[in-house]
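Entry 14. Ran structure prediction on the chain below.
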Amino acid sequence: MSKRKIKRTLVISFSALIFLFIVLCIHIYIMMKPQAADDKTIAMARIDFKQDIKQPDADKITSWLYNQKGVEHVLCNPNSRIAVFTFHPAKVSADAITSNLSSTLHYNAVRHIPDEKELMKGCPVASSSFSYKVYDVMKKIF
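Output, structure tokens:
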């Protein structure tokens, strides 16, 4: 084998090795890059309407909320005059959504913020709830 072929083979091999090393470094950087915890956080909010709303109004409200940045899921009940939605707090605030809804769609809407008593009553895993008691018994058995 001539010196020229050996030299060419070594240059190509070394170039391929450098290329693969760079690809590996980029892959490790992308996979190990820390993700912001706020990107994955989902919160739930409730909007109370201080006026009667019918099913077409509820559909309009639901559609409007789904079109807002950061909103994941929406439920609007015209009978109880309540809309509940999940959203990403890093992208948008529930207060901003509520005020934009009121000004854009001209509904008398107020964000509902539960007090301490409502929070304890509504939490499915509160230590006094039935769900928690079942979970506690199952945890002891298994």
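The first helix runs from residue 3 to 32. Will compare against last week's run tomorrow.
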